[in-house]
Each structure stands twice: as C-alpha cells, then as structure tokens.
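Hello Y.,

Per our agreement to keep a running log of every chain we model this quarter, I'm adding this entry. I've kept the format consistent with earlier entries: sequence first, then predicted structure.
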Amino acid sequence: MLIQLKNLEVLEITSTHHAAEDESNFILPFLESCQNLRSITLHRYYGFLSKDYLNEILTIIKLLKDPEINPPFELIGMWCDFESLNQLHGYDDAFLQLRRIKQEEFESDEDDIVLNEDFWEKFKSDLINWKLRDNDNSSDSDEENN
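Predicted structure for the entry above:
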C-alpha cells in the first residue's frame, strides 16, 4: 500500500509485526516506485541487511539516482554479515550512506521485553554490591573527616 505513495520521501518502519515472508525484498521496489525517497529506517529488522542485499540496493540506487542532482540515499538499520563498508562491492557514499542504528534505538518496546528469573537475580546481586561499595566509600570519608 505504501508503495503507491509516489512522493514518499522518508520511510521509518518500527515493527516487523505485520511483515510477511514474501516482503523480504521490499526496499528495491520502493526505490524504483518512490523516486523521491531519501531515506529508510528499519527498526527490529535483525539479519535483514546482508552484504548481498545491500549490494543490490546500491546497484539500483546507482541506476536511478544522479549524485550531482540527488543527495545520497540514507539507509539506517542493522547490517548482519559484514563489519566494514569497505566490504560492500563498489560502495560510494555519494549514492548511499549507511548508518548503523544504535542499540538503544533498536531495543524492543516494554511489552516485548521478557525479564526472566536470572535477570532479576543478577540485578539484585548487582544492587547489593553497589550498596555495599557505596557504604564502604561513605565509611572511608567519615573516618577521614574525624
């Protein structure tokens, strides 16, 4: 449905809840159909932006966009099978700017988080250790003041 919005400039997808398996290649048709699209941000798309898929995206962008006229396309998300942009074939930031989403931006909503017993035990232990350390520091400063 969104692909019909020919003048769409910015697309931010915050959930994969309604994503279908056959929509795993949706960025390429968006780039072809929405010529004004400047950026896509993908939250929670773990393992989606592979090196091969990004190379396909870069190829399409190079065919459709002129860096003399168009600003670089910005793609924000988590890539999965490479560490450096140098590993992408023909990467050119005049066409495509990749930005890795920050971990805190990428975490689930509160209702998606399940905290198990191990988490709470570690949390209690850390809290107790922090309080003990804080008390030790206060005792030291009290002794120094006397």
